[in-house]
Design a protein that fits this description.
Layout lengths: L4 E6 L5 H10 L3 E6 L4 H7 L3 E4 L25 E4 L1 H9 L3 E17 L12 E14 L5 E5 L7 E4 L4 E4 L11 H12 L8 H16 L4 E5 L3 H14 L3 E7 L7 H9 L8 E6 L1 H8 L5 H23 L4 E3 L4 H6 L25 E3 L7 H10 L4 H4 L19 H20 L8 E15 L2 E14 L7 E2 L4 H14 L3 E6 L13
Parallel strand pairs: 1-2, 1-3, 3-4, 4-9, 10-11, 10-13, 11-12, 13-14, 16-18
Antiparallel strand pairs: 5-6, 5-7, 7-8, 8-9, 15-16, 16-17
Helix pairs in contact: 5-6, 5-11, 6-11, 8-9, 13-14
Amino acid sequence: MERELVIVLDFGGQYNQLIARRVRECGVYCEVHPHTLGLDRIREMNPKGIIFTGGPNSVYGEDAPRYQKEIFQLGIPILGICYGSQLMAYMLGGSVATAPVSEYGKTEVEVDTSSALFEGVSPRTICWMSHTDYIERAPEEFKITAHTPVCPVAAMEDPGRKLYAVQFHPEVMHTQEGRQMLSNFVYRICGCAGDWKMDSFVETTIRQIREKVGDGRVLCALSGGVDSSVAAVLLSKAVGRQLTCVFVDHGLLRKNEGDEVEAVFGPNGQYDLNFIRVNAQERFYAKLKGVSEPEQKRKIIGEEFIRVFEEEARKIGAVDFLVQGTIYPDVIESGLGKSAVIKSHHNVGGLPDCVDFKEIIEPLRLLFKDEVRRAGLELGIPEYLVYRQPFPGPGLGVRIVGEVTADKVRIVQDADAIYREELAKAGCDKGLGQYFAALTNMRSVGVMGDERTYDYAVALRAVITSDFMTAEAAEVPYEVLFKVMNRVINEVKGVNRVLYDLTSKPPGTIELE
Ligand code: XMP
């Protein structure tokens, strides 16, 4: 039986993968494709429904992304969101204009609950708006099914042609009944049965990997973090011993982490993998000497990683594929989508031009962190590994502000180990998305045992987050912070100040660099 599919056509909005994720949460498989995806390809894919995303353009703009009008004649239900709704209106003869008042944020919307899209939704419901243009006049044959005091067409539909449009964003949490609306779209309007679960992702991905790899040899960049561990186990289930996992100890790992990773994935561990550990600490420190610009550091670490892999690959012989545990937030924050570059994530934007592999496989590229964890559980990876807090590819390189040296690595490793130990002892680590110690580049004056000190300040960070795209600083009890401060200053040479980072994301990011 063919799997049900809903496709999201990407017109450049911020929330495109979020839409796909919400649809998957409804139990229907969903993929995002660029708006340049051809009509023939859409016919071949035979989706049960199509969603047009939002986007930054105005439909009248010269470079505004559009689609062929024939898409509306396929008989496939379409839901336009924000820019997608305006595009639908514009292409079908309605009019779009700059709204006299832009709506931004939570807005009360009056909806017509007799619409299939709004079945089970309250007549007045809070929705997330973010627009400067609006649909001024719906195309003929369309019925207006929602409005606000300033937006005459907050939703419209032509049920005969199965065309639906909403000005607001049902995919974001702030739209209180957005889930119900998307569920109505996929079940009531598209007629989906809901045949998708995370284990289907695992099964399908394993099948796709087998088809792609054939009898080729695969090299996996294993860091021991959640993402690369899930990617490695996925690959090992798909191609067994055709896979070699290379674990590069770049000297930027947490304290004792290299040995811990080896214990799990190495020859005495629980997986049937070819495992190679490369101790490349000195090599990375040498490359990072004198470099303090964060993006440059990221690029150097990413590039050196690839070089090490290439060397290992050469030793192994012909290697066709390189596997990486890139996940969706890495992709957009690296600016490979249309959003601005925040950080070029290790293994994503930081790839060097010449890579000695036929292809890169990134099986988790479309998943959010919690989806990766669910896939990990499906794969039978132990919970303690699956729920391990994420650790960035460039490791402590992005937790040491400024130049990286072996001594700074030692400081941050020791401080971090104390912080983690105390949080765990106090039972405060549960519910935290990520927590770690970082080393600021600030040295300041202190006094210890009647002596003047001029040492570094360690920053403690703990954040609560579900998707790592936004985060808030956690309220770690003062007694715990105080104890950590005391221990760090007493036990870690080179530190005379401990700070707690209160910054949310945005405006900060989780890592310091
Ligand atoms: P930021 O600092 O951008 O981090 O708020 C968001 C999440 O991504 C992790 N992170 C990375 N993960 N390679 C990775 O695999 C990277 O280069 C990288 N940089 C940040 C970070 O730890 C957090 O979980």
